Amino acid sequence: MLTPNFSVEIRRIIIAAVVLVPLAVFDMIHADPPHHTPDGVFVNPYFDEDIRKPGLLDKIWWKFKYYAIQKPFLNDHFEYSIIPSEFVNPPERINGGVVTWVGHATFLIQVDGVNILTDPVWSERVGILNSRIGHQRYTPPGIPCEKLPPIDVVLISHNHYDHLDYPTVTQLEAEHQPVFIVPLGVGELLEQWKISKIIEKDWWDSDTVDGIHFIAVPAQHQSRRNLHDHNTTLWAGWVMEASELTLYFAGDTGYFPGFKKIGERLGPVDLAIMPIGAYEPDWYNALFHLNPAEALQAFLDLDARYFAAMHWGTFDQSEERLSDPPRELLRAVRKRGLDKDRIWIFAFGETRMIPARKPDDVITLREVQQE
Fold this sequence. Notes:
Elements: H1 4-30, H2 56-70, E1 97-103, E2 106-111, E3 114-118, E4 125-126, H3 128-131, E5 135-136, E6 153-155, H4 166-176, E7 179-183, H5 186-192, E8 198-201, E9 206-209, E10 212-217, E11 237-241, E12 246-249, H6 258-266, E13 271-275, H7 282-285, H8 292-302, E14 306-310, H9 324-336, E15 343-344, E16 351-353, H10 365-370
């Protein structure tokens, strides 16, 4: 005969199974394909990298053709909008939410009294030998280093030189001692650089710093800093959940199905910070960088309210002219019939306030697109 206590335990087990089994099945169905491999290398789970992998001779010919033949005849007469440094004065703290573009993938995000930098780069060059050799900076940082407010958190998307810059990182450590939040494997390099506060995350892992919830989310890219470490560290985008705003920083990424999943799991997204440059030639860059039209589609997949353009106009890394990405983005916006006021193309050093979410703000960009 069953005792009352035994019957209660049986009921608890049944209830737990009824609740937890469907959740486990749901997670399995919606899980990303594995991005880890047994040998410790990371992969992009949504495509086979060998399918469109260019050979060494392809790369050599492309570099020669562009830099020796095409580039000398390219004229870029675009006048870059740069806020004079004397007018750039970010507040020390702010309770709402504002973003300032420094250049490339570097934004100062100020939300709920917390100051966050994304992929900070202040160097005149980015590349090997601690940025002594590499891509030259064509536009000055939008915020001079000496005008930075106290920095609490630094978000790193991956370990490429134009996103993880040794001189900038060590200067931030010396002057601000922020928390560095990085994808798997990047922490080991920061430890070698004597960084004191490091948090490493895998995709969909999260942590909370100063009341802001940070979630690492999938991206489609790659990592490398030398000849022997290809894809041995992870790459990621980041979602930041504040008290009344949700922000998304894409880092570096190609277009892939993960954008819809991020929006479904962590939306609504108030501001999506999206890369729009380094996309030509298509055969070389398409898998790992968004062109402007793809960035706009990813924005629609996320169902975000506002789009902030980045990763253009700073370093000459590909065949399109430095000023092409914003022009192509606006062309794509017109073609889709979207509200251009939701698409933010910053001047270097420009600050914009993120409008608060209104209760009656129910018409999203995705709904507009479907009409």
